[in-house]
Amino acid sequence: ADRSLAQVRSSSSKKKYERWCAARARRHDQGQELRAKKLIEVQEPLVQGETIKLPLVLSEETKLPLMLSEETQLPLVLSETIKWLTVLGETIKLPLVLGEVNKLPLILSEETTAKS
Questions:
Q1: So what's the pLDDT on residue 6?
Q2: 32, 75, 101, 108: which one has the fewest Cβ atoms less than 10 Å from its Cβ?
Q3: Distances, alpha carbon 29 to alpha carbons 65, 81, 105, in Å
Q4: How many CB atoms lie within 10 A of CB 95?
Q5: Spans of all domains in the chain
Q6: Is 59 in contact with 90 (CB distance < 8 Å)?
């Protein structure tokens, strides 16, 4: 009887540990996203016509991995196609649809945040 109780204990604590790990990973991801958003808020890339004015640091990258936030509510297909936007000097050439948005909420991917 003692052995089965120990087995139950270990399996339940294992599940707890797995849940804790999953929650920790989620918090880490949210933290990364939050940091990226704060970074963007500080630097505020403005959409002017079809281009986004970028902070100098970002324009040094030849390609900037960007993910459109859900606030823009664009079809997933569109956001997939423009996830990799080429940076020209300090500006990103945008599809016309996006150029209509005054300010574009952007989330930098972890690759970009890791470099800073």
A1: 60
A2: 75
A3: 16, 23, 18
A4: 13
A5: 2-115
A6: yes
Does pTM surpass 0.70? Answer: no
CA–CA dist 56, 96 (Å, integer): 24
In the chain, how long is the greatest CA-to-CA distance?
73
Task: Compute the distance between CA of residue 80 and CA of residue 47 in angstroms, rounded to an integer.
Answer: 19
Contact by Cβ (8 Å): 42, 35:
no
Sequence-distant (6+) residues with CB within 8 A of 85 are 63, 64, 66, 92, 93, 94
Q: Would you say 92 and 55 are in contact if contact means Cβ atoms under 8 Å apart?
A: no
- The predicted model gives 46-68 an average pLDDT of 45
Whether 62 and 87 have beta carbons less than 8 Å apart is answered as: yes
Beta-ladder partners of 8? none
Token reading at 18: 């797995």
